[in-house]
Design a protein that fits this description.
The structure is a homodimer.
Chain A: H1 5-15, H2 18-26, E1 32-33, H3 34-41, H4 45-57, E2 61-66, E3 69-74, H5 78-91, H6 95-108, H7 112-130, H8 138-141
Antiparallel strand pairs in A: 1-3, 2-3
Helix pairs in contact in A: 2-4, 3-4, 3-6
Chain A binds a DNA duplex through residues 17, 19, 33-35, 43-51, 53, 65, 67-70, 112-113, 116-117.
DNA sequence: CCATCATTTCGTCTTCTTGCAAAATATAGA
DNA sequence: TCTATATTTTGCAAGAAGACGAAATGATGG
């Protein structure tokens, strides 16, 4: 992450939108698949893609491709982590961020392939049945 | 300064513009008159007024009125100071910020009433002559 | 190689932002 | 009160940002 005026402005700008601030907040617990971020933000996939591109462009977020899926995570960069830390501290115990966090915890227990194909409710239902009987699908496509 | 999602977004948004980031950076050394900020940013006074209003609205900057002049300074609020600290750290040793800082040092030696009326060059010329002979005009209208 | 599917890019519309000049507001001093 | 002046507000034009659906891209798995 560069350290000049434009980079600083770009990072601040990137955090200056609720969807993007929520996105970096929900990445605190580790990387997430784009489809998981989309599920939480409840925006069109194209819109989420643009928001994540913005976060990547300014170095706050990194991406890792794994087959069909793209995982995004917080950058290791020190300046980037400072930005995120302050942004989340400034948001305090915002209910929206806590709700997002709870939903993320749910989604982490679901295979991303189910989430993408079936949506939140369908994937959760399959996860509920899959965890009690039959082969657990988490083995192959699970996110982290 | 509130600590919720909207406040955090507003603060980040406010810092996400070069003029506003430069403004908070130049306030590190203490409050400045609006006309001084305007002189450094070299923008229309109405534009600077709007930028400062944005910074005040989200709690990063406070204002103090003294007669005809309005002085702006960094907020004492902890969250606000964190935002400013990170923003400036993210900008690193940006030449623009250093140039601004040098100009601010010059302007602090000039009475604001001269700066507003005569502009930068005229005020500096008067300050140069005033510092060697005659009554020093800094006594009455000086900023800080 | 074809079909599927997660993601990105594109086109379009609407809304917000940024800049300035000009008018309005507020204060100081004669 | 009247004038001068520092700042804010308003009105307007140009450009950017944000949202979506549809089309394009890229990888998987038959």
């Amino acid at each position: 992450m560069d350290r000049d005026l434009d980079s600083a402005v770009a990072a601040a700008r990137a955090l200056g939108h609720p969807a993007r601030l929520r996105a970096v907040a929900m990445l605190r617990g580790g990387e997430l698949c784009v489809c998981q971020v989309t599920e939480v933000l409840k925006l069109a996939t194209s819109t989420v893609s643009l928001h994540l591109r913005e976060l990547k462009r300014c170095g706050l977020v990194t991406e890792r491709k794994d087959g069909r899926w793209v995982y995004v995570g917080l950058s290791d960069d020190l300046t980037a982590r400072e930005w995120v830390r302050v942004a989340i501290a400034a948001a305090g115990d915002e209910p929206q961020l806590e709700a997002d966090e709870r939903l993320v915890e749910q989604l982490r227990r679901v295979p991303v392939e189910d989430l993408c194909r079936l949506g939140y409710d369908g994937a959760l239902a399959r996860a509920a049945s899959g965890s009690t009987r039959g082969p657990n699908r988490r083995a192959s496509g699970e996110c982290r």
